[in-house]
Each structure stands twice: as C-alpha cells, then as structure tokens.
Amino acid sequence: MKILAIDTSTELTSIALVDSGTVISMASHTDARGHVEAIGALFTELELDLSSLPDLIACGVGPGPYTGLRVGIAFAQGLSAAWSVPVVGVCSLDAVANAIIRQELVSPSDEFIAATDARRKEYYWAKFDSGGKRLFGPNVGLTEVVRELVLESRISLVADVLPHAIDVAACALRGDQLDVTPMYLREADAQPSVRVQL
C-alpha cells in the first residue's frame, strides 16, 4: 500500500511517501511557527509521480498546538478531495512511539512513556507497551508531574523525539487509524474577549 503521510503537530513539519513500509521520498522542516510556509514547499520536494496516486493519505492529528494541527489536517483533506483518495488520522504520540522503537531508544521488552513539548512547562504524553501499542493517554500534564509518575512507575520517559511522517505512515499501515479530527487536549490560547450575539 502506498501512503502519503503528513505531520505538523510539533515544530517539525514532515511529509513522506511510503510504499509497503519502504520510504520512497520524504522532506521535513523545523520551525514552530512556519507550518503554513513549509508544507507546500515540502510537498513539492517529494516530486510525486501524479500518474500513480497514493492509496491512502495519513495525517498526524495531535495532540499538538491549534494552528499546527489545522495546517497539516487541512492540507491532507485538500489532497484527499482533489485526488479522491481516502484520508485517515493517526495520533501523533503513536508516531513518536513508533520512532522510539524504530530507533531502539528503549529496551525491547519495556513499557515506556512518549512525550512531546506542550509548552507552559507541560508535556503531551501517553504510555505504550514494548510493541508501541498505546496503553493510556494521550494526556497533557505538567512536566514535573509526568516525571514523578515515571519515577514511581519505574518506566522510561522519552521526551526528545518528534513525530515524523514516516512513522505516521507506519502507524496507518498497521491499522492505528483515527478520524481526521484535531486532538486538542486544552482550550485554544486565543479566546474572544466579548461575546457576540447574532
């Protein structure tokens, strides 16, 4: 199965074309505020053969910041509509867990917690088994609270790996698929100051 995968849930914007688990091409860019500018350029870098469209589009749906998630999801849905190719969501922390296992950053038999920076001294985090199956979460919590939980549970915390499109594709390929709906774990920073009645 040929999958075009996208993730914009962290400062890393990434896109990849993966065919039956083999990476055909990929591109990425790091900028916490540059998702909109980066996504189109990265798509062009892939140099896709549009005579052979992907079978599936997979998009990281978070948890992550409001704007970043919207950029990747809107881009994936736009391609889905233009190409008439189905699109699915993948929990971005599932992609992180896949990357952690792929890079052999934890013991092959151990459970672990994967976390990404949620700002405000908080983590987005989830607990996984040794095979990358999510056991608990995703959640958002203070970094110090998550670290205390890790110490009490005596399991590894990996908080320096970002989700990449190749891992989004791997999760989608193995069936870890969700609706393409942004996974927000807290309210947006921008709130209307005055209620408007229509």
Key attributes of the depicted protein:
single chain; 198 residues; alpha/beta; Nucleotidyltransferase, domain 5; 2 domains; five-stranded mixed β-sheet; four-stranded mixed β-sheet; 5 helices; 9 strands; 30% helix; 30% strand; globular
What CATH calls the topology of the largest domain is Nucleotidyltransferase, domain 5
From the coordinates shown, what is the CATH architecture of the largest domain? 2-Layer Sandwich
Number of domains: 2
Task: Give helix and strand order, one letter per element, not per position.
Answer: EEEHEHEHEEEHEH
List low-confidence stretches.
Answer: none
The N- and C-terminal alpha carbons lie at a distance of 48 Å
Q: Which value, in Å, is the CA radius of gyration?
A: 17 Å
What percent of residues adopt helix (DSSP H or I)? 25-40%
What general outline do the C-alpha atoms trace? Answer: globular
The tally of strands reads: 9
Structural class: alpha/beta
Report the sheet-strand fraction. 25-35%
CATH class of the largest domain: Alpha Beta
Q: Give the spatial strand order of the biggest sheet.
A: 3-2-1-4-5
Number of helices: 5
The named CATH superfamily of the largest domain: ATPase, nucleotide binding domain
